[in-house]
Amino acid sequence: MELSNLLEVLSWRDAVDIAAVTILAYNLLLLIRGTRAVQALLGILVLGAIAYLADTFELRTLSLVLNGVFIVLPIAIIVLFQNQIRRGLVNFGKNPLLGFATDQPVDPGFQEIVLAATTMARRRIGLLIVFERLEGLRDYIENGIELQARVSLDLLLTIFNPSTPLHDGAVIISQDRIAAAACFLPLTSNPELTTRFGTRHRAALGITEETDALALVVSEETGRISIAIRGRLSENLDSRELRNQLFRYLVTDVEDRAGL
C-alpha cells in the first residue's frame, strides 16, 4: 500500500492511537534503561524467537516446554520488573503528561568533590564515590540508602566519617545529586588485583568493569587519591589531576559518546 493511500485510510483516531503507543513504548524503554531489567527483557525476546523457530520447524518437545514457560511468564515479568513498575507508576502518577522518566543535565559539582577527596586524603579517611555516566546505576542505588541530596563538601564529609553508619559502602552520584550512600558494589574478579588492592579499590574496579561508571577512591591506609574507569586505576592523583580527569570523563567523554 502506498503512503498516500495509507494516509487516506488512517483516521485521526488511528493517528492518536499510534502516537500514544509510541510514547508509552518509549517511556517504558527509558524506565528500564541502565538496569539489569534490560538483560532480562533481551532474554525474553530470545525465548520468543526460539519459540517461533520451534513452531516453524515443528520441534514439538521444545515447543511444549516453551509454551509452559510462557504460561508463567507474566508472573515472572512482575517479579523481575517490580522495582521498575513501582517507580514508573509513581512517576506517572506525579505527572502523566511527562511520562515515566526524564533526563536532567549532569552537574557533578567538581569543586565540592575535589575538596572532599583532598580533605579526606589528608585525614586518611577512606572514600568511594561512583559517578553515573551513560549507563544507569539504578540497581546499585536501590541496594543502598537513598538520599537524593545536593552534592556538598559537608555532606560527603559526614557520610564518610568513620563514626557514622553510612561510611561503609559507596556513594553514587546520579546526574547532579547524591542518589544514595552505603551502596554495595561488585568486586573485581581479576586475580592479580585481588591481592594488590583492598576491598574499596576492588569495588571501584568491579563497578567500572561491569558498567561505564567512574569511581573515585581515597585510600585510608596511604591517603592516595585514585580514579577507576573501564576497569583500570589511575593512582596517586593531586587535586589538579583529579579535577581534570573528572571533567574529561564526566563531561567531555560523555558528550562525545552521546553525540552532543
Descriptive report:
The chain is an alpha+beta fold and 260 residues long. The chain has two domains: 3-94, no CATH class; 110-258, YojJ-like (1 (3-Layer(aba) Sandwich), CATH 3.40.1700. 55% of the residues lie in helices and 14% in strands. The protein has eleven helices and seven strands. A hairpin with a 6-residue loop joins strand 5 (214-218) and strand 6 (225-229). Helix 6 (110-123) runs antiparallel to helix 11 (239-258). The longest helix has 21 residues, at 12-32. The relative contact order is 0.10. The model is unreliable at 98-108 (pLDDT under 50).
What structural class do helix, strand and pairing data support?
A: alpha+beta
Overall tally of domains: 2
Catalogue the unreliable spans.
98-108
Instruction: Tell me the CATH superfamily of the largest domain.
Output: DNA integrity scanning protein, DisA, N-terminal domain
Mean pLDDT: 80
The helix/strand series, from N terminus to C terminus, equals: HHHHHHEHEHEEHHEEEH
Quaternary status: single chain
Profile the largest sheet. 7 strands, mixed
Distance between the termini: 38 Å
In order across it, which strands form the biggest sheet?
2-4-3-1-5-6-7
What is CATH's topology name of the largest domain?
YojJ-like (1
- Give the tally of β-strands: 7
Going by CATH, the architecture of the largest domain would be 3-Layer(aba) Sandwich
Based on Cα principal axes, name the global outline.
elongated
Q: What percent of the residues sit in helical stretches (DSSP H or I)?
A: 55-70%
The radius of gyration computed from the alpha-carbon positions, rounded to a whole number of angstroms, is 23 Å
Number of helical stretches of at least 4 residues? 11
Strand content: 5-15%
CATH class of the largest domain: Alpha Beta
